Structure formats: C-alpha cells, structure tokens
Amino acid sequence: MKAVVVENYDKIDGISVREIETPGVANGHVRVKVGAAAVGFVDGLKVQGLYQTKDPLPFIPGTEFAGVVDAVAGDVTAFKPGMSVVGMARSGALAEYISVPSAALKSLPPQIPFEAGASFQANYLTGLYALEARASLRPGEILLVLGGRRRRHRRGPDRQADGRPGDRRRLDGGEARLCDQVRR
User: Fold this and answer.
1) What mean pLDDT is predicted for residues 4-27?
2) Does one domain contain both 53 and 85?
C-alpha cells in the first residue's frame, strides 16, 4: 500500500510517499481502507519533531481519518466489513489502510462525506472546545467569523448536512460571514 512516511524529523517538504506492507489485524483491532484523512496543526508539528511527544522513526503521520472497514479481528463485534467509519489514532492515517483498536472508531452516517468525517473529531471539536470552554459562547449567541472561508460540498454552499437550508448570510461580499448559532 502507499503511505506518507516520515524517516527523519524534517519540514513537510522532506517527507515522501512510499510503498509499505498493508497492516495486519490484531485482536481487538479493525483495519480501515482510508477514504480521507485530515491534516491538522498537530500533524505539521509531529513531522518536524516539534510536538510534545515524538513518534519513533520511521512513522506514518495522520491522526484523523474516515473510510470503510476492510477487515475485523475475530473478537470485534461492533464493526463489519463494508461499514463507513471515522476514527482517531496517534499516527498512521496518511496511508491507504490503517489498523486501529475498535474503540478508536465511530460509525459514519451515510450522508456525511469522508472528507467531513475525517476532519471532524480533532479539528472541529478543538474549535468547539475553544468557543465553549475558553470563550464561553453559549447557545443562542452569535459568532462572527472574519476572514473565514467555507468549502463547498456537493450538497451546496448554504445547506446543512441533512440538506436543510443553512443560516449563513454574507456581510461584506464574502470576507465576513455570520455563522450558524451554536447548536447542540
């Protein structure tokens, strides 16, 4: 399989894609064919050796992923081959396959694309934590994001994940947006 491999702590330009063996499936583990992997701030630090913990070299970066269950250990009952899942791992997501403990996975609803699922857990939840715990933003309050940029998904620019119209309005030609109210 192909994987991003860090052989020396280096700038992002110093890492490469290599052919390596597909991981096996140990007891309690599930192997996932990765459909999408998120790349976040932590990954940028890890490949340079600047994160608070260092993965032993060589390693495959990537902590968040989404994909389809490929194989399960005999003692795993919660997941079956063919199921769509999201997961987190200490590393290893920037590869075609990843094998993780079943507890690291959650089922991914069919209407959520892999790209959205892969980036949700660490990246979005970190932002949510910052807004709720640090900024004390509460339900009903409005958050103004200046310089924010939205990606367009297949469902359209102003649609929520379930297809309902979103509550986003342009404020100044697109540079600032009034974001959805915080909802639980």
Assistant:
1) 93
2) yes
